Amino acid sequence: MTTPRERMVASAALLIRERGAHPTAIADVLQHSGAPRGSAYHYFPGGRTQLLCEAIDYAGDQIAARLARADSAAALLDGMIAGFRKQLLNSDFRAGCPVVAVAVEAGDPDDSDSPVQARAAAAFHRWTAQIVARLHDDGVAADRAEELAMLIISSIEGAVVIARATRDVKPLDLIHRQLREQLAAATH
């Protein structure tokens, strides 16, 4: 069984992936998680910023764990695409990536040093490094692995954004085929 604190972090991540960080209020997280009203500032003395940072870390850990389980670059790609495809369909195209949601909200020049933005950047760096390592393990040269990792992350995240806007998984399917071809050429 999860604790109220863990439920709040998971709920915040789920709400961010659907709404973004700015519209996700502590009251919404409390309601979604079923946590007692007074628990927010008990568990998160740093307030909403601390909760959002931990939600981004949680989301980052979820994807990182999925990436770590892949036994090949192709399996890694297939798993990422399948996970986002399922998430989009199950949420009626409301749920994207909470890390992207935070990154997209980076347009506020007064918030350029935001700890939430820093957490999003750290998640992207972590995922990219994991993909580079997986590609390297599959025999891809270091410089090509770095390029392919960035291509994979940016293509998938971009396709998720477009799929949400168009309410169609076709962008994911298209980039899946193209990225599979790139991986096949790089690993053979």
TrEMBL record:
Q: Where's the Transcriptional regulator LmrA/YxaF-like C-terminal domain? A: 75-178
Q: Which organism does this sequence originate in?
A: Mycobacterium dioxanotrophicus
Record bears the keyword Manganese: no
Residue span(s) of domain HTH tetR-type? 11-52
The name this protein goes by in its record = TetR family transcriptional regulator
State whether keyword NADP applies: no
Keyword terms of this UniProt record: DNA-binding, Transcription, Transcription regulation
| Gene3D superfamilies, alphabetized | Tetracycline Repressor, domain 2
Q: Which GO terms describe its molecular function?
A: DNA binding
Native organism taxonomy: Bacteria, Bacillati, Actinomycetota, Actinomycetes, Mycobacteriales
A Pfam family: TetR_N
